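RETRY 2/3 - previous attempt timed out on the joint model. Re-submitting the same 777-residue input unchanged.
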Amino acid sequence: MDFRLGEKELALKEEIRKFAKAELPPDLVRNTVIDGEFRDFEFEISMSRKLAQRGWLVMSWPEKYGGRSASLLEQTIYEMEIAYWGIPGAWMGISGIQWVGPCLMMFGTEEQRERYLPLIASGEKDGVWCTCYSEPNAGSDFANIRARAVRDGDDYIINGQKVWTSAAHRARWCWLAARTNPSAAKKHHGISIFIVDMKSPGITVNPILNYYGRHHFNEVFFDNVKVPASNLVGEENKGWYYLMQSLAFERRSIAPTTYGSLKRILEELAKYAGQTVYEGQLLSKNPMIRAKLANLAIDLEVLKMFAFQLAWRISQGQIPVYESSRNKIMGDDLMKQGAITGAEILGIYSQVDPDSVWAKLNGAIQGAYLGFPGQAIAAGTAEIEKSIIAQFRLGLPKSY
Amino acid sequence: MNFGFTEEQDMLRISARDFLAKECPKAKVREIAKDERGYDPQIWRSMAELGWMGLVFPEEYGGMGAGFMDLVILMEEMGRNILPGPFFSTIALCALPLLEHGSSEQKTKFLSQVAKGEAIWTFALAESSGKYEASEVKLHAVLKGTNYVLQGHKLFVTDAHVADYILAVGRTRESERPEDGIALFIVDARAPNVRMEAIPTIGGDRQFKVSFDKVVVPGDNILGKIGDGWNIVDFILQRAAVLKCAEMSGACQAVLDMTSSYARERIQFDRPIGSFQAIQHKLADMLIDVEAVQYLLYQAAWGISVGSPSPWQISAAKAKANEAYQRICIEAVAAHGAIGYTMDHDLGLYYRRVKAAQFAAGDTDLHREVIAVELGL
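RETRY 2/3 succeeded.
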């Protein structure tokens, strides 16, 4: 065993720190959980471009697709630091960077890779993707997808409705799961993945505001949308397999980013507690607050180790079966713990609108508090993740 | 970064597991619980022959020259199997500080005995309050000629009744900083005026009140420098916390394994109870706890093994293990139902040991406080 970070990783941390100091307002604690992607699209994309120029945006991809073949450990460090400093623009709608790119490298054609990967790597608006998986009747029961793709000569014709589609209002491309074989014996077996141009005629994007009025996700309607057959990813009807892989990529990234943003929140809370007097005593002297912040710190250590362990396993060429689910549960639980502990420390100020001048710590705590229930649902609920662990790690029978 | 064990470490784990399964099955654990000595001298001898006692000692003291991580692996297996006896007190609490802070005469004399399985040691720190704080150390040590005379008592001293030596933390002078004026005395446990009174525990391990009534300790039998004792206590508590964590980690894994196999086999409503999400999610939570303990343990142990122990990492590991071990046992009994609440079932053996493990080498409050201080609070 060896838990040392190499010189490369340490240097990367330092570079990102310098970048954040140079490019962002000083001491800005940002919380992207509630803001979602692209609240200020032009600013975010300007930052994406800068991250791309540094070779960071898709650092673990090969050079020929715009990356620099960085190790997964480096990427994990990068994700932790980006979240720690709250650097915007790192996700580009998240889909493209985190799973469309990696899935195309595994299952796409060379033509698809050459066309789409450099676009994502550029950090430009044309590299923003969304993912259309969920439907009104396909939430946790995800294989229940009804959107249809019917072959018509050199094209597929898509009809159907998607929902909870993050960043669809900003995306140039869509990674779509649709049913190609409605009579397959098992519903998992008739699904395919397509690349869809969001400018195609027949696509309608309607905003769905979250409970805090922020525009993060959408519903997307496909009305006889024509997609070239060359935009099919991998083999027809094998989509379930690609989709599971994409979810594993998505769930992997949650631990490093949650770790980074909570590490910052923990440090800011400790600072705040050391400067704030309540009932004649510094908050930092209150034994309850000391214990709660210590607990948060301890669980953050766990999340960090989980994030590194998963990156290490993948880098050994092993295919993780349950670790992404474990990390997703731990990250979500911790975001909740951080938000609630933080709100307790802010006391009556925890109710202040995060954008208000009255907000403490730049509204980061309220952002986490408002955001954590949503983050916990995205990419698989805790209930689904726990069932995955029970079945694939502990060998228990299928429960649904 | 590397999360893997070496081939030798895997072999050590497997051979320890096999040995303990064969020599110390649960029937044996129960038998030892009824034996007044609290350990099996025959198993103790075999362990010495296998080189376990001197695992991390250099060869000159009869050791194997292995690393701290190897000791962690060994103790995980001891915890998994519940090996009763004075290994933890002898090795973790006493031999490691002897190795680090002992004079060469002390090392030659004492460590060689330990390696051969010929000496049992224990550590006496806590007094009336049971807290591991310097201000609580009151055992008087008065210099008379070249000897020290000890007066006072210690509580919760494990395996004192079978110990040959007691490493006792005493106060040589009052001082403004409670950490000053503390020394560690190597006391012959069978010396006259060393009296023991059993403190029966729910874990069935052997703990004692040890009274020192004008006990004479030769000046040579001080570990480290006079007055420097609290630094050595810190050293002991850090290593012991990690090694206790290792035992707890092994125990957690055993309880999870037991419970998931029960959930696969136990039929109710015509199907295995493991097919119910209420049970599945309990087990998934247990698994996350188990792995949390493991990785925090390995991180802290690795720091020690490369010579840079981190109080933050050590305390995170022990605080986590304290909470997780308890939670895992409670959930495991719940998943088993009534059978898990019986004397005949092995689960109780693990649950009953939770309290002793939590308080060994620092309770949750103590370790949380270390973290709070590190956070700048």
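Residues 126 and 133 of chain B are 8 Å apart (CA to CA). Closing ticket.
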